[in-house]
Every structure is written in structure tokens, then in C-alpha cells.
């Protein structure tokens, strides 16, 4: 086993920024543990010239798997592509930045290879010639130093953990591989896609965000969130759950499949705090969470947690802020 | 249709959590609870049974110590018909792959049309169990379902991805993990809670499933926790209960933090 493979995801025809960041981090790690880095890209109608540019972000080699079955954003055909790359390259480590697709693909690959898998890794550290991840745990109160006992180790890094360098240049040779697809990998087909509507206020620029989740009870609950946000001179954010339910527009969604925000103050109202939400707002200055469920995971990473009924607290908070002028 | 739901008992998120410095394992002592995200999967199954497929049988499957029986009952109370609980000391210390191997072995014993999971476990924020189990069972997999429509020989799932909404169709049998957007799980009424204990429970050991103990548990783990450290950044959470003055206390906190003037 030798080398580090990084699964790079295409989003809208471009390699995702998260993938580029992980590729660069892999190159830093690879230099420290003496392992070359290979970028693995899957898709349909890939452009070799564009893929060669991954050399700018640390790839020594690019492996491209090009097939119509790899163009739908489905994870299981990507498992087959990664397995074909593994067959040829015998990599020691597989890395991917977490996305809806890559997390599933890495899970499938780990199961296929019988490889240990670490998810939610926030740092990649060289320990001699080995990789030891730092995996966040217990509501980010501890970092577990997680290494591998299997010949191959698979790592999914937390979304937004590594940012790529802008304007880097370089080139890497591109090799093509043809995976063979397993029957179950072809058992899912994409039958429809709607692009998300992304018009609305730019929540990324607001100093204060007041965010609403399922705990609001219904779409009408956003009236008091809007009022509270206005009192703070801020904007309104929402979770995936309420956006999917049609309570609030997608443009306000914070999280892995929404926006990443870092306001000075983030007030989470009726939000449980799933990892998909957390990765979009954990960079906020101060986090206040209001939830009637004392078990809500958001209390693990809020600065101030309030167990109570947001319908009582939020309007009063807006009133007090206005009174302060 | 036959539906299996993989559930997990997790430590009460509000209880103090710690990692045992001797074993580097999460200490699961104290009050435990059914993973809240699993309740959405159970609700999804119950709605299939109440709607398009009334002859559905819902099986709750878990891996965990005997004490996890309480969470199994909680899941049954919400609408399960029977349970399969793998309780074996050799399973303790299983990592993600080990847990997936045990679940897969338990699921292989019966012919399920649909295997459901919650989107993640609340304790370790694990969101890859569906992908692991599906690959071990060689079944199609869809994660993060925001809706599930049952068809003839397939399920149609709508899910949010980075670029918008995908609609995908998966042939059954298949594995589907559901997002917390899919439904609002109901709380079981008292008679259902009382009745859960009387439903058929199967408690199995690894040997009953033909699982090699060396491939699971601490011995078979593919990952090794070699140490722990304290991350930089956020301090502890100040947690208060609203006694009618929560809004005032939030303002005081924000003034103290100099977030508001």
C-alpha cells in the first residue's frame, strides 16, 4: 500500500472548493509521511485539460473515471470507480471532504475494502510515517486522535475544514480508468432535478443572524424570527428541515447543503443542531440557542443555551433589544 | 412490505459526557435514550403502513448492550411490530465498520424490502451507517431522504443535495436513510408504551448470526483511538432554563460578551 488518494467532487462542472482544500491538506500530509497524492475525479464527459490543473492543488497524478453512470451525482457508481482506482493504485489512505455524495461513497468504499473509516475529521496529522486524524467528538469538546489498524484507511473530513489557495498554478498528468459497475450500484437512478432558487437577501453579510428550525411549529413562526432579526438589525436564517418543508426560502438556508456563515451573533431558535447545520454556522462569533428540548445537540456547541419555549422568549427578546435602542 | 429500521441507543445529550481515559471509549453510563434522529425513520415506516402498504411489518433492529432494550421498546412504542437486538459483550467497542457488519448480519437473516435509518446518530454524529450497511448487503442506497414514495418494486425519494433537489428511484430491496425534514415524529400514547414490552423481541448473540467476534468489537476495529486532546475554540456552554426571565438573561449575556452595547 502506498500513496494517498483524494476523491474530488465535481459540482456544477467544477471541482468543489472543499475537494481542493482537502487535496492541498493531503499534499501537506503526504510530504510529511512520504506518500504521493493522487486526485480521483469521477463524472461524465470530463475535460482532461481542466483536471490537469489539480496539480496546482497538490495532486502528483490525476485519475479520471468517465462514464454516464458517474454523471448523476449518485454515490454507489463512485464506489465502483474508487474501487477500480484502488485496484490499480493500492493506496494507503483515501480522503474526501464531506458532501452528500462523498460521505456515502467513502462509506461504501470502506465497506468494500474492509477498511477502517473515520468521519468528521478536522485535522490530518503525520505521526511518523502514519496518518492520525483528529476527530471531533462529544459536541466538539474533545479531539480523538484516530489512526488505522487496517491496511487501508478511509477519512471523511468535516465540510469547510480546509480552504484552498486562490490563484495556485501547476499541472499533473491525467490517467483514465474504466470501472466495472456492480449490479446494486446501478439500482438507483436520478429521475429528476430542480436547481434551488437562490434569490433573496445575502445572509452571508449580516452581523447578526436569527435562525429558525422545526421547533417553530409552522411557517407562521418565522414572523417572530423576522421581527427579532429586524430588532437586531440582522437577517433571517433557516435550517434544511424547514426549507424542505417549504416554510422559508432556500436562499436563507445555513448548512452543508446551504450557506456557510460566520456572523458575530447567531441565535438558533428551535434548531436541533444536526451536523449538517453545524458545519454551516460553527464559525459564528457567539452562538445562542433556544430550544424546548434539553437534549438538542445544539446545546453542545452553543455559548449560551436556553431551555424554554421560543414563542415566549423570542418576541420578548426583540422587545428588549428595541428598548435598548 | 417488510421494513427494518436500524436504531441506536445514545447517551442523553444533556447528561455530562466523557471519554474513559483508559479505554478511549465514550462512557455510556447514565441515562440513555433512543437516538432522536431514528424517530424520523420509524415515523416514515409507520406512515407507509398507515398509507400505501397496510400489510407492512416493521422490525426494529439494534446493536447494543442489554440495557438498550429500553430504547428498543421506545422504538416499538412508536409503531414497530417486533425487534431484533444483538447484545453481545464481544460487540463492545465496535467502530463504524464493526457495527455495520453486525447490523448487516442481523438484516441478512430476514428478507426486508426496505431498510431505514435516521440521518445520523446524535452521540457521535455518524452519518455513514446507511452507506456501510448497504454495501455490505450489496443493496442500492439512498441517503438524506426528505420524502419517500413507495412504488411497485421501487421507492422514489426526494433529497436535497448541494445544487438543489434530486428525485431518485431505487429498486427494492434497498437501504434509505431519512433526513429530519421528512416528518414530525409523533409521541407514542401511554398504551403503546405499555404494549411495547409485549411485542416479539429477539435477543441474539454474535454466534447466532455467524459473525466472527474477531471482525467486530474492540478487537476487530479498523480504527484506533491513540489519544485525546482539547480543541481550541469554544468554551463550555452556559445552560439555563427559562424561568420567565430568559430574554433578560440573553441580553445580559450578550452585553457581558460585548456583542450588544
CATH architecture of the largest domain in chain A: 3-Layer(aba) Sandwich
Task: Describe the sheet with the most strands of chain A.
Answer: 9 strands, mixed
* CATH class call of the largest domain in chain A: Alpha Beta
Largest protein interface?
A-B, 105 and 92 residues
Secondary-structure element order of chain A, N to C: EEEHEHEHEHEEEEEEEHEHEHEEH
What's the arrangement of strands in the largest beta sheet of chain B?
Answer: 9-8-7-10-6-1-4-5-11
Number of helices of chain A: 8
Low-confidence parts of chain A, pLDDT < 50 over ≥5 residues?
A: none
Helical segment count of chain B: 8
> CATH homologous superfamily of the largest domain in chain A - what is it?
HUPs
Give a concise summary.
The complex is a heterodimer of chains A (325) and B (261). Chain A is of the alpha/beta class.
Give an account of the 3D structure.
Chain A is α/β, with parallel strands linked by helices and 325 residues long. Chain A is 27% helix and 29% strand. Chain A folds into two domains: 4-186, Rossmann fold (3-Layer(aba) Sandwich), CATH 3.40.50.620; 203-324, Rossmann fold. Chain A has helices at 17-33, 48-52, 75-89, 100-113, 222-232, 240-244, 275-281, 310-324, and strands at residues 4-8, 10-11, 14-15, 37-43, 61-66, 93-97, 116-127, 130-137, 142-148, 153-157, 174-177, 188-195, 208-212, 235-238, 265-269, 286-291, 304-307. Chain A is elongated, with a radius of gyration of 21 Å. The model of chain A has no long low-confidence stretch (mean pLDDT 93). By secondary structure, chain B is an alpha/beta fold. Chain B contains eight helices and 13 strands. Chain B has helices at residues 38-50, 69-77, 96-108, 129-137, 190-196, 206-209, 217-220, 246-256; strands spanning 2-7, 9-11, 32-34, 57-63, 82-86, 114-118, 141-150, 154-161, 164-171, 174-178, 201-204, 223-229, 238-241. A nine-stranded mixed sheet of chain B has the order 9-8-7-10-6-1-4-5-11, sandwiched between helices. A two-stranded antiparallel sheet of chain B has the order 2-3. In chain B, helix 2 (69-77) packs across helix 5 (190-196) and helix 3 crosses helix 4. The longest helix of chain B is centred in the first third of the chain and has 13 residues, at 38-50. The model of chain B has no long low-confidence stretch (mean pLDDT 92). Strand 9 of chain A pairs antiparallel with strand 12 of chain B.
Amino acid at each position: 500500500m502506498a500513496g494517498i488518494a483524494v476523491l474530488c467532487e465535481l459540482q456544477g462542472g467544477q471541482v468543489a472548493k472543499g475537494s481542493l482544500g482537502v487535496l492541498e491538506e493531503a499534499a501537506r500530509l503526504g510530504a510529511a509521511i512520504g506518500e504521493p497524492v493522487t486526485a480521483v475525479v469521477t463524472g461524465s464527459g470530463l475535460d482532461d485539460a481542466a483536471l490537469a490543473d489539480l496539480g496546482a492543488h497538490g495532486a502528483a497524478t490525476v485519475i479520471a473515471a468517465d462514464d454516464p453512470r458517474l454523471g448523476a451525482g449518485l454515490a454507489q457508481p463512485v464506489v465502483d470507480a474508487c474501487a477500480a482506482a484502488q485496484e490499480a493504485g493500492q493506496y494507503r489512505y483515501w480522503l474526501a471532504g464531506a458532501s452528500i455524495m462523498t460521505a456515502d461513497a467513502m462509506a461504501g468504499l470502506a465497506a468494500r475494502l474492509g477498511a477502517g473509516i473515520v468521519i468528521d475529521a478536522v485535522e490530518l496529522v503525520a505521526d511518523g510515517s502514519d496518518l492520525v486524524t483528529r476527530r471531533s467528538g462529544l459536541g466538539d469538546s474533545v479531539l480523538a486522535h484516530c489512526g488505522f489498524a487496517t491496511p487501508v484507511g478511509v477519512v471523511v473530513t468535516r465540510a469547510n475544514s480546509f480552504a484552498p489557495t486562490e490563484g495556485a498554478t501547476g499541472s499533473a498528468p491525467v490517467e483514465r480508468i474504466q470501472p466495472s459497475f456492480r449490479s446494486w450500484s446501478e439500482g438507483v437512478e436520478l429521475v429528476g432535478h430542480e436547481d434551488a432558487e437562490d434569490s433573496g437577501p445575502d445572509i452571508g453579510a449580516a452581523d447578526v443572524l436569527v435562525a429558525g428550525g422545526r421547533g417553530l411549529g409552522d411557517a407562521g413562526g418565522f414572523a417572530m424570527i423576522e421581527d427579532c432579526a429586524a430588532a437586531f438589525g440582522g437577517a433571517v436564517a433557516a435550517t434544511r428541515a424547514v426549507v424542505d418543508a417549504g416554510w422559508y426560502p432556500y436562499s436563507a438556508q445555513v448548512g452543508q447543503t446551504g450557506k456557510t456563515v460566520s456572523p458575530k451573533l447567531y441565535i438558533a431558535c428551535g434548531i436541533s443542531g444536526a451536523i449538517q447545520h453545524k458545519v454551516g454556522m460553527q464559525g459564528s462569533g457567539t452562538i445562542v440557542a433556544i430550544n424546548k428540548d434539553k437534549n438538542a445537540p445544539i446545546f453542545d456547541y452553543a455559548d449560551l443555551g436556553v431551555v424554554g419555549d421560543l414563542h415566549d422568549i423570542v418576541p420578548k427578546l426583540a422587545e428588549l433589544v428595541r428598548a435598548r435602542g | 412490505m417488510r421494513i427494518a429500521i436500524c436504531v441506536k441507543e445514545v447517551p442523553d445529550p444533556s447528561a455530562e459526557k466523557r471519554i474513559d481515559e483508559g479505554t478511549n471509549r465514550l462512557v455510556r453510563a447514565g441515562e440513555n435514550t433512543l437516538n432522536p434522529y431514528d424517530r424520523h425513520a420509524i415515523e416514515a415506516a409507520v406512515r407507509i403502513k398507515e398509507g400505501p402498504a397496510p400489510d407492512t411489518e416493521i422490525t426494529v433492529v439494534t446493536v447494543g448492550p442489554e440495557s438498550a432494550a429500553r430504547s428498543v421498546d421506545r422504538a416499538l412504542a412508536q409503531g414497530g411490530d417486533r425487534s431484533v437486538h444483538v447484545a453481545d459483550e464481544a460487540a463492545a467497542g465496535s467502530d463504524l465498520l464493526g457495527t455495520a457488519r453486525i447490523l448487516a448480519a442481523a438484516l441478512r437473516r430476514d428478507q426486508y424490502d426496505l431498510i431505514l435509518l435516521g440521518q445520523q446518530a446524535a452521540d457521535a454524529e455518524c452519518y455513514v451507517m446507511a452507506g456501510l450497511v448497504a454495501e455490505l448487503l450489496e443493496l442500492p442506497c439512498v441517503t438524506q431522504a426528505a420524502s419517500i414514495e413507495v412504488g411497485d418494486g421501487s421507492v422514489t425519494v426526494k433529497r436535497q443535495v448541494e445544487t438543489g433537489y434530486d428525485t431518485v428511484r431505487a429498486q427494492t430491496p434497498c437501504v434509505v436513510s431519512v433526513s429530519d425534514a421528512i416528518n414530525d415524529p409523533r409521541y407514542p400514547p401511554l398504551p403503546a408504551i405499555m404494549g411495547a414490552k409485549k411485542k416479539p423481541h429477539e435477543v441474539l448473540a454474535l454466534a447466532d448470526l455467524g459473525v466472527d467476534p474477531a471482525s467486530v468489537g474492540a478487537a476487530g476495529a479498523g480504527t484506533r483511538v491513540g489519544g485525546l486532546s482539547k480543541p481550541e475554540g469554544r468554551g463550555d456552554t452556559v445552560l439555563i432554563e427559562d424561568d420567565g426571565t430568559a430574554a433578560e438573561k440573553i441580553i445580559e449575556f450578550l452585553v457581558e460578551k460585548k456583542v450588544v452595547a
